[in-house]
């Protein structure tokens, strides 16, 4: 996400001014820059502040200008399908996290040396490919290292760090205002590259995944390493530990996890529900910030309020995740988001302040619902397919985000086609979670057979 926001900054078309005094044919407010001679106008800032000005794309088609952003999203979709399944099969959580971070950081650093929009777009695709599963791997790995008591809180810490990282981007852009867009890429890519170097030395593989893969000795060594920091736990014998291993053949095949998911009716049903819910949340999460220009309120203040709402959303999720049931929480936040989104249309005719207030509440609720949905999804699926299931849910979120710009454009003439549709979609899609089992305070499973047994036992009891 951070790299997506960064690409928006580098794609901004700089303002310009007329260079010849008294030239009535040139007006920076109304003239078409493509109809003017090159010596009659000039950019207000150095040409290297944006790829639009540096590569002369001001008169290029919208397809060319939008190619980098589209390439990034396509890379995210491809990476989400390929890398996520590797985390469940041959590579594991730790190695996939390392590989993803390395791909994302190196492609970002190489973007600095781009000489045209085509090379830039290819590198944005690679960047999206690497970025796609970083959040998923980090969340799955961290939650599989703790028990059910702290599972929700540990998973939420990642959302909090994401929000802090997102909020740091405007500060980095402000400090480097007027500098080359390449400078922004350097300062945001370097920390990721350093982090990817540290992963092999400081991050432990998930013992759960190792047990499922039959690598018992490695799993026990990691558990002993973790337990060595606690004297009471370190006295426990690990010789009798017993974890069930996934019994399917070809467990190292690239798409084995997807195949395993498709073999059980209950897993297909759960996956369909979380993807439908994620689709509705994605429309609001990605669409609302894009639709702020359709509101009556100040655009810059609206963007700031939306950005700031992600931080308290993560904090609220952290404190309620262990206290409230998953289904009721999701229903509450998705319905609240939907109602406030629809009411934005009517409120705009009454008060701009009331309108932005409802929009912020709707966006905040959607962010909280998305955080809860990610935690809920990792609890619904066993270790052998968990990373793939969460990744597919995230793909549905991205799909909702990909459709939202079309609705935002249509909403410029009819507000219902943007905020009205957003509200209806997240409200209706959120209702599907009623069919999912409750997972709060329930231990997570490691294999499909174990999860199916728990599912059948819960239905009987």
Automatic annotation (TrEMBL):
UniProt entry keywords in alphabetical sequence: Membrane, Transmembrane, Transmembrane helix
Gene Ontology molecular function terms on file: transmembrane transporter activity
Transmembrane segment boundaries: 67-86, 98-123, 129-147, 154-172, 184-203, 268-287, 299-321, 328-348, 360-380, 392-410, 416-436
InterPro entries for the chain: MFS_dom, MFS_sugar_transport-like, MFS_trans_sf
Stretches assigned to the Major facilitator superfamily (MFS) profile domain: 1-441
Coiled-coil regions listed: none
Cross-referenced SUPFAM superfamilies: MFS general substrate transporter
Membrane topology: Multi-pass membrane protein
GO CC terms: membrane
Entry's localization field: Membrane
Stated name of the protein: Major facilitator superfamily (MFS) profile domain-containing protein
């Amino acid at each position: 996400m951070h790299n997506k926001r960064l690409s928006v900054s580098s794609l901004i078309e700089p303002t310009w001014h007329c260079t010849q005094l008294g030239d009535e044919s040139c007006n920076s407010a109304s003239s078409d820059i493509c109809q003017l001679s090159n010596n009659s106008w000039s950019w207000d800032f150095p040409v290297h502040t944006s790829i639009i000005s540096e590569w002369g794309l001001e008169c290029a088609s919208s397809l060319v200008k939008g190619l980098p952003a589209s390439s990034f999203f396509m890379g995210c979709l491809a990476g989400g399908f390929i890398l996520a399944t590797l985390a469940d099969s041959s590579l594991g959580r730790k190695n996939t996290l390392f590989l993803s971070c390395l791909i994302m950081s190196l492609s970002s650093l190489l973007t600095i040396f781009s000489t045209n929009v085509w090379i830039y777009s290819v590198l944005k695709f690679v960047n999206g490919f690497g970025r796609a599963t970083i959040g998923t791997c980090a969340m799955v790995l961290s939650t599989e290292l703790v028990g059910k008591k702290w599972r929700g809180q540990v998973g939420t810490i990642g959302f909090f760090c994401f929000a802090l990282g997102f909020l740091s981007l405007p500060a980095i852009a402000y400090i480097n205002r007027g500098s080359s867009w390449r400078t922004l890429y350097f300062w945001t890519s370097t920390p990721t590259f350093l982090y990817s170097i540290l992963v092999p030395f400081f991050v432990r593989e998930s013992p759960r995944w190792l047990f499922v893969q039959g690598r018992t000795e490695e799993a026990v060594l990691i558990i002993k390493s973790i337990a060595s920091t606690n004297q009471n736990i370190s006295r426990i014998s690990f010789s009798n530990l017993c974890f069930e291993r996934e019994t399917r053949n070809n467990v190292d095949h690239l798409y084995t996890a997807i195949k395993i998911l498709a073999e059980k009716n209950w897993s297909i049903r759960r996956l369909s529900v979380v993807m439908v819910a994620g689709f509705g949340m994605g429309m609001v999460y990605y669409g609302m910030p894009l639709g702020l220009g359709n509101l009556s309120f100040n655009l810059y203040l609206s963007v700031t309020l939306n950005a700031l709402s992600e931080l308290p959303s993560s904090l609220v999720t952290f404190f309620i995740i262990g206290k409230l049931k998953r289904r009721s929480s999701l229903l509450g936040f998705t319905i609240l988001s939907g109602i406030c989104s629809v009411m934005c249309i009517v409120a705009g005719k009454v008060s701009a302040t009331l309108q932005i207030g409802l929009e912020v509440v709707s966006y905040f609720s959607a962010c909280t619902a998305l955080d809860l949905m990610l935690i809920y999804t990792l609890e619904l699926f066993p270790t052998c397919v968990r990373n793939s299931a969460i990744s597919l849910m995230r793909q549905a979120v991205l799909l909702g985000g990909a459709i939202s710009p079309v609705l935002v454009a249509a909403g410029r003439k009819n507000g219902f086609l943007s905020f009205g549709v957003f509200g209806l979609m997240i409200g209706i899609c959120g209702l599907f979670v009623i069919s999912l089992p409750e997972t709060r305070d329930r231990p997570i499973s490691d294999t499909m057979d174990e999860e199916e047994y728990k599912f059948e036992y819960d239905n009987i009891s």
